[in-house]
Amino acid sequence: MIMTLLVLGTLDAVRARSVSLASTLVGVWQDNRYLASGWSDVYIFFPDGTFRFHYNQMNCTKRKLSYGGKWKLSGNHVQLTVTDEELLTNVAPDPDEGPDCITGDTVIKKLRTPRHEGFSVTGVTVLPIEAGAESEPLIRAQFGRRAFWRHRSDPREYD
Predict the structure, then answer these.
(1) Could you tell me if residue 17 is inside a domain?
(2) CB within 8 Å of 41: residues ≥ 6 apart
């Protein structure tokens, strides 16, 4: 069953349009309105039902880089089944980034037992395109208690 919701947006005036929440979720979602040289926490949802979550790239001491698996929508609730984690191993100080940063080898570790997570999606809003900025309208939504912005509808642009 496809859930339809009313998405409000403003370009020149407020207008309403009906869209599928599942198709709206597909894309690159960051917990920051603006993209910079490195991303903040990011969900990437693919149309085949897979996802990847990348931790903030500005934290250069982290050893867990990302995790991924399958996603599905039940009403307005996103259910995640985490099947793997991307980890930093054989860590050492990163001479290029300074003494507080680490570097190492990245490995994808399959989880023996999948982990289940989830959140409700609420407050889906289309934002106006800023002059000289995005090529497509930003969509803002609450993922649980955190705000996320969809920066790209094509998830292949950032994975």
Answers:
(1) no
(2) 30, 31, 53, 54, 55, 56
* Domain housing 53: 22-157
- As averages over each run of 10 residues, the pLDDT of the chain (159 residues) reads 34 40 93 83 96 87 89 95 92 73 85 97 86 73 96 84
In whole angstroms, give the CA distance from residue 130 to residue 114: 41
- Cα 85 to the chain's mean position, in Å? 15
Number of domains in the chain: 1
Task: Quote the CA–CA distance of 56 and 66 in Å, as a whole number.
Answer: 9
Residues 63 and 91 sit within 8 Å (Cβ to Cβ): yes
By CB atoms closer than 10 A (0-12, 13-18, 19+), residue 15 is exposed
Tokens representing residue 101 in the block: 């940063």
Q: What predicted TM-score, i.e. pTM, was given to this entire model? A: 0.80
- Domain with residue 68: its CATH number is 2.40.128
